[in-house]
């Protein structure tokens, strides 16, 4: 499969996830707080390179891929996601500078479930939503306990892995995942250029 087709396939998985998340949000009232962005500041977000292939592809199209790659490579100690933009206005906590092309974990976190050891789905959300929207949180927990529809993390990781088992296999720090995704895109196009394709 060409890299472009992989990007399209990933985007289809993302689109289907967006629909499931919207259904879950409508049913429960769960949502992010305006101007929050706190979850993007976590220094230990793990992701696979594959979920950032659309971002890497977009950066390549915009002529930014090599710059990002060099910056990520030269700052391996930076743990906060490179796509995060911390300053907007007074009181804001920041936002994603690459929202359209954010990764799978960014789309799942807050509005999905993880299967526990017994295979029972458990809500995965953040402390802020739990504290600031306690009613919605309770509705969401009940909704899941009653086996109502909720995006299940594992299912979406499986769907991505079916597109590219290698790039979708390993979880790593988010910036490393972005770097590896860009590396895959740069290698692909450099090989094609060398072949005159
Ligand atoms: S890609 Fe965007 S949404 Fe995901 S962690 Fe980085 S800043 Fe946050």
Can you walk through the features of this model?
The chain contains eight helices and six strands; from the N terminus they run H-E-H-H-E-E-H-E-E-H-H-H-E-H. It has one domain. Strand 4 and strand 5 form a beta hairpin. The relative contact order is 0.23. With about 200 residues, it is mainly alpha-helical. The mean pLDDT is about 95. It starts with a helix and ends with a helix. The strands form three sheets. It has a two-stranded antiparallel ribbon with strand order 1-6. Strands 2-3 form a two-stranded antiparallel sheet. The site of iron/sulfur cluster (SF4) has 11 residues, from loops. InterPro entries: Puta_zinc/iron-chelating_dom. Pfam families: CxxCxxCC. It comes from Fulvivirga kasyanovii.
